[in-house]
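Trying the structure run again after the queue cleared.
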Amino acid sequence: MKLTTKGRYAVMAMADLASNKSIRPISLKEISLRQNISLAYLEQIFIKLKNKRLVKSSRGASGGYTLEKPASEIKLSSIIFAVDEEVRMLNCKKQSKKGCTNRTTKCITHNLWDQLDQHINGFFEKIKLQDLIKNNLNL
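Done. Tokens:
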């Protein structure tokens, strides 16, 4: 499966942000310490999350990040895609004319992996950040 550390860490960091929301912004250093994620890596992730308007930042001594919208409106799929991740089981590109085998045909298990892709992406599409932090993952 091709969900890398970046995608997992983005979801972890957003869940941390949603769980620890307060009247003040949360610093990446706080998230880094709580989740044991490199601060430099979080900085890269949060640039992408901010560009996709999932978080907003504030500067200064008491600066940090807050969610751009309520956790109940943020899909996990949005977080994963925001950091340029793609959850895929297929090795081929869906619209490729070469197919899975670098020939002109799909591999014998193409439809199996394609269906699994659809289930996984559908799963992340259904789950909101609020569901994750409330541990309400019964779909």
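The longest helix spans residues 110-126. Worth checking whether this holds up in the mutant runs.
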